[in-house]
From TrEMBL:
Alphabetical list of SUPFAM superfamilies matching this protein: Arginase/deacetylase
EC category: hydrolase
Name of the protein in question: histone deacetylase
Cross-referenced InterPro entries: HDAC_I/II (IPR003084), HDACs (IPR000286), His_deacetylse_dom (IPR023801), His_deacetylse_dom_sf (IPR037138), Ureohydrolase_dom_sf (IPR023696)
Cleaved signal peptide residues: none
Gene3D superfamilies attached to this UniProt entry: Histone deacetylase domain
Positions with biased composition (Basic and acidic residues): 500-518, 568-577
Organism of derivation: Somion occarium
Record region (Disordered): 420-518, 559-598
Record domain Histone deacetylase: where: 23-313
Length: 598
């Protein structure tokens, strides 16, 4: 194969992060891959680069400001303060737990894909590799499937600044729903996903999902059944991709090389060998179109490292020179007992061949390609080489100070990321943020005094978040009505609602047959009678005691009335043991919220 200019992005810190001791996603696989690439002598044959980590502002080119700010603030020790008893307003759950260094890892992953895309767009390289990228499940405002920031979308957006058309190819075992959803309504990006479909995460990716509006027909899905082998994959992948390139005529390609489609993966269900998987890379390379290779899924670490190492050799065109016997390396004992650069098939039956569904899937895909407009055109326009903020001198390193007015303006501008540290130290400043991420930070704030105006703002935000805001940020049309699934269990995974939400959900389900998705709901409510915030079980107990005449609130204090109804015959009007305010001195209109648990 001809020589191509290859750029390889790697950050030595990538192996230091961990999702948790029991979590199947292991960032260490990138470090092991790099070790194998190094001992095979491939580093000298390509340009090795360490990308600048992505900033929060760069992430907001796709993700919402509130979501990025949420990721920057969340930490493992704060999970007990999050509503829904440990589940998360931004759809973090057992698949996507908060862990130490989460935001740094996201910036590392996204930074590599952004830099790789920029290098391809500038013409400095033919192939760019970022094995730390490929997190294709992350949505605009929520995490999903082990993915928090969608580096692929951020990379494609960089390419679109220069190239009129970009082709995205996904050979991960799971459907690339996050990337497809991001470009579902445009014809400048064609998404082509080869994946398992059925009772399988994320539950999307049928051949009926073709795009919408101008993007109608430019979302191509090729679903498979269990046991997909090398020959079956090749018989569909090559004719479909050949036809896609003929019709769409992409200027650049992004190839997501998720290795969970390789045989023996802990969460995969295909029977593709290392050679069958890497054949996709070789076939894409043969067209001579600049393309970026990113990682993705893959949870049997040693097989992931083997596959990505061999595919790095395929990108260089030296795969025939690779010795299948592994040379000595730091992780040599991991690859026993064979110690070879290979992933062999197992005895899974290929269900795609047994019921002849393979031919039908290929025919439907080819028919869809015949119906789309070939090579959609894009109007010529001047593309700025730098952002407007940078051009006007609003870069973060030039901001030397700020006053109260700056803090208020930060609610609606990019400057919020420069104020994170200072605003988090003051409970008063925290209460001023008017966004969904700051609503979360307010709920975990342990401020002892909240004035009436703040309570009014909080109530209005709560009504806003449970109403039109939830409707605005519901799933797109292609996923509406489908339950969120867990990538580890392949079953529906939804936050654990409060008692109140459960009752309301049941009533709504009985009326409409559907359940409305709620954001940032809590069982804690302000009770006028009690004069304080009560959670569900406290509110129930208070109502019982109030009906019995045991409690009276006078001037912000609780008094226990001895009405002879089982409370004893003590002095009437005896002051209770518990003060609503908590502290001895409270200003007018102030309360203590230490008992608030949500």
């Amino acid at each position: 194969m001809s020589q191509r200019r290859v750029s390889y992005y790697y950050d030595p810190d990538v192996g230091a992060y961990t999702y948790g001791p029991q979590h199947p996603m292991r960032p260490q696989r990138m470090k092991i891959t790099h070790e194998l690439v190094s001992v095979y002598g491939m580093l000298d044959k390509m340009t090795v680069l360490r990308a600048k980590r992505a900033t929060a502002e760069q992430m907001t080119r796709f993700h919402t400001d509130e979501y990025v700010d949420f990721l920057a603030r969340i930490a493992p020790e704060l999970t007990h303060d999050v509503p829904y008893h440990g589940s998360y307003p931004m759809a973090l759950h057992e698949d996507n737990p908060p862990w130490e260094g989460l935001f740094e890892f996201c910036s590392l992953s996204a930074g590599g894909s952004i830099a790789a895309s920029q290098r391809i767009a500038s013409g400095a390289t033919d192939i760019a590799i970022n094995w730390a990228g490929g997190l294709h499940h992350a949505k605009k405002r929520e995490a999903s499937g082990f993915c928090y920031i969608n580096d692929i979308v951020l990379g494609i957006l960089e390419m679109l600044r220069v190239f009129p058309r970009v082709l995205y190819i996904d050979i991960d075992c799971h459907h690339g729903d996050g990337v497809e959803e991001a470009f579902y309504t445009t014809n400048r990006v064609m998404t082509c996903s080869f994946h398992k479909f059925g009772e399988y995460f994320p539950g999307t990716g049928t051949q009926d999902d073709k795009g919408r509006g101008e993007g109608r027909g430019y979302a191509l899905n090729v679903p498979f059944k269990d046991g997909l082998g090398d020959d079956s994959l090749k018989s569909v992948f090559e004719p479909v991709i050949r036809r896609v390139i003929e019709v769409f005529q992409p200027c650049s390609i992004v190839l997501q090389c998720g290795a969970d489609s390789v045989a023996g993966d802990k969460l995969g269900c295909f029977n593709v060998t290392m050679n069958g998987h890497s054949n996709c890379v070789q076939f894409v390379r043969s067209f001579g179109i600049p393309f970026m290779m990113v990682g993705g899924g893959g949870y049997t670490v040693k097989n992931v490292a083997r596959t990505w190492t061999y595919e790095t050799a395929c990108a260089l065109g030296v795969e025939k020179e690779i010795d299948p016997v592994l040379p000595w390396n730091e992780y040599f004992e991991w690859f026993g007992p064979r110690y070879r650069l290979e992933v062999l098939p197992n005895n899974m039956e290929d269900l795609n061949v047994r019921d002849s569904s393979l031919n039908k899937v290929r025919e439907i895909a080819m028919q869809q390609l015949q119906e789309i407009t070939p090579a959609p055109s894009v109007a010529l326009q001047d593309v700025p080489k730098e952002s407007l903020g940078h051009h006007l001198g609003f870069s973060s390193h030039e901001i030397s100070g700020h006053d109260r007015l700056d803090e208020q303006l930060a609610q609606h501008s990019r400057f919020v990321y420069n104020l994170n540290d200072s605003s988090s130290t003051s409970s008063d400043e925290s209460s001023e943020y008017d966004s969904d991420a700051s609503e979360y930070s307010q709920s975990r704030s342990r401020s002892r005094h909240v004035n009436k105006s703040t309570r009014t703002k909080r109530a209005s935000r709560k009504a806003y978040s449970s109403g039109s805001y939830a409707q605005q940020n519901s799933h797109s049309a292609m996923t509406r009505g489908k339950k969120r699934m867990s990538i580890m269990t392949n079953h529906a995974a939804s936050p654990t609602p409060s008692t109140r939400d459960s009752r309301e959900g049941e009533r709504e389900r009985e009326k409409t047959g559907k359940t409305k998705r709620r954001f940032f709901e809590s069982s804690a409510r302000w009770d006028e009678g009690a004069g304080r915030v009560l959670v569900e079980h406290e509110r129930g107990m208070y109502e019982i005691e109030r009906d019995l005449g045991w409690h009276t609130v006078v001037n912000g204090r609780r008094w226990i009335e001895s009405s002879g109804s089982g409370r004893g015959d003590g002095d009437e009007g005896r002051e209770g043991d518990e003060s609503i305010g908590g502290d001895d001195e409270l200003g007018e209109g102030e309360m203590d919220i230490d008992d608030e648990e949500s």
